[in-house]
Amino acid sequence: MPIPSRSIHTPPALAAAAAGAPTDTAVLIDNFGRRVTYLRLSVTDRCDFRCVYCMNEDTRFLPRAQVLSLEELASLARNFVALGVSKIRLTGGEPLLRPNVMQLIEQLGSMPGLAELTLTTNGSQLQRFAPALRAAGVQRLNISLDSLNPARFLAMTRRDQLPQVLRGIEAALAVGFERIKLNTVVQQGGNVGELEDLLDYALQRGMDISFIEEMPLGEVHTRQLATSYLGNDRLLARLQPRYGLIASSESSGGPARYYRIAGQHSRVGFISPHSHNFCASCNRVRVTVEGQLLLCLGNEHAVDLKAVLRQFPGDDQHLRQTLLAAMSIKPERHHFSLDAPPQVLRLMNMTGG
Fold it and tell me: Which residues fall within 8 angstroms of residue 311, CB to CB, at 6 or more apart?
């Protein structure tokens, strides 16, 4: 039976397809033998930036009734952990803009069975939140930083907040997070001229950095992605002579391929959804703040978990059956193209990082 190409919104039918009640040893395994151990959980679609590769300037955000409550997010997390998920990354939008988000973070930080709690942020709120995040049990931070040049930062984020972000990074370093990683989306004609500056900035502070190929997601990419896309093979070839990058087998649980530099604590990562497809080892799923379980970043396969949570409140067995059955529609891989229209129309702030 072919895998459907668009979203699926019939979770009760999926739940009925699950073979009986989940056992204490049930885990999330898809049809290709890949075990899902990593959940990226969006807590808001709202953001104080308007990054050009992420959303439109006039993006409209969801009304409160359409988003999952903090209690529903915590319930989802608990049930994913019960099915073998050991790592949760909180995403947005900008997750630290969610009112009372620290209540959820404190719950997750002390959740039995969860080995790692991490967070992706644009850094704008870190100066205020860094101590509380560390105290609540967040182990690692990913901080988006596409430029150290104020004018270019403004052009890429549509917001003049670079000093605020840099202060947030220093605040996070000061409270002693185990590893801070900068995420840099590389754009030809944009920030490509300062990649060495960004790498040096990370090295000077003992932070990791990952360079990310731009992905064709959302209507923001109806323009020709080929004009801004730059493959990571070219970046590696450019950085290699200056830094002597050494391939590493290390993994942070995500798709980055890491390199080391002799005498440095930092790792240099390359996330390459175009040039080096990482689908064969995919161990993750995403849940949007609307409660859509996204089985693949580059496809529209989805299951409406909000419907399950609200139709069967407090019914963990029904929810877990739905999660187990959803693994059957997780596709084998995505197929990104620089020339074709985007396959996925949702914007990144709706996808959840």
Answer: 12
pLDDT tens digit sequence for 135-179:
999 999 999 999 999 999 999 999 999 999 999 999 999 999 988
Q: Within 10 A of 74 (CB to CB), how many other CB atoms are there? A: 17
DSSP lists the bridge partners of residue 42 as 91
Asked if residues 136 and 91 have their Cβ atoms less than 8 Å apart, the reply is: no
The stretches of the chain forming alpha helices (DSSP H) are 11-17, 70-82, 101-109, 126-136, 150-157, 162-174, 195-204, 232-243, 305-311, 316-326, 348-351
Burial 26-46 (b: 16+ CB within 10 A, else e): bebbbeeebebbbbbbbbbbb
How far is the first Cα of the chain from the last one, in angstroms, to the nearest whole number?
A: 31
Q: Are 109 and 138 in contact (CB under 8 A)?
A: yes
Task: Give the orientation angle of helix 162-174 with respect to helix 150-157, to 10 degrees.
Answer: 100
Q: What is the pTM of this model?
A: 0.86
